[in-house]
């Protein structure tokens, strides 16, 4: 249940670690004032009755992004270990896209391919 915040004049970053959804994430957003980037777990979420206390599903991950007031988020904690949960190993990014498409608020929440590097150029 590790959570990590890095606060720098040029970047405010939050790492979710494993977590089940709770109002604590709203408290983090209020207390910390939001983040430029959050790394939020999106995988290993089925079956919900068993995984909900320790793993977010993609819909909940979107809510966590809102709660912590992140401008942008990257989905982590998915696609590494076959059989750790009941959803297919590549399902989390697909379910995240469905959740984003049904959200009334556009969200900059993306997933990298395995081994992909992402560069954000300074503004």
Features:
123 residues; alpha/beta; Metallo-beta-lactamase, Chain A; 5-stranded mixed beta sheet; 5 strands; 28% helix; globular
Structural class: alpha/beta
Biggest sheet features? 5 strands, mixed
Give the H and E element order. Answer: EEHEHHEHE
The CATH superfamily is known as Ribonuclease Z/Hydroxyacylglutathione hydrolase-like
Model description:
This protein has helices at 24-32, 48-51, 58-67, 91-102; strands at 4-8, 11-15, 35-41, 70-76, 109-111. The chain has a single domain (4-111), classed as Metallo-beta-lactamase, Chain A (4-Layer Sandwich), CATH 3.60.15. The termini are far apart. With 123 residues, the chain is α/β, with parallel strands linked by helices. Helix 1 (24-32) links the parallel strand 2 and strand 3. The protein is globular.
What would a concise description of this structure say?
The chain has four helices and five strands; from the N terminus they run ββαβααβαβ. It has 123 residues and is an alpha/beta fold.
């Amino acid at each position: 249940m590790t959570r990590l915040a890095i606060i720098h004049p040029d970047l405010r970053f939050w790492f979710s670690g494993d977590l089940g959804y709770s109002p604590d994430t709203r408290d983090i957003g209020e207390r910390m004032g939001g983040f430029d980037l959050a790394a939020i777990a999106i995988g290993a979420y089925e079956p919900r009755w068993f995984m909900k206390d320790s793993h977010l599903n993609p819909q909940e991950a979107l809510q966590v992004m809102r709660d912590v007031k992140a401008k942008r988020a990257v989905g982590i904690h998915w696609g590494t270990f076959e059989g750790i949960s009941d959803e297919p190993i590549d399902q989390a990014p697909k379910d995240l896209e469905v959740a984003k498409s049904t959200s009334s608020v556009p969200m900059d929440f993306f997933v990298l391919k395995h081994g992909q590097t992402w560069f954000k150029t300074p503004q």
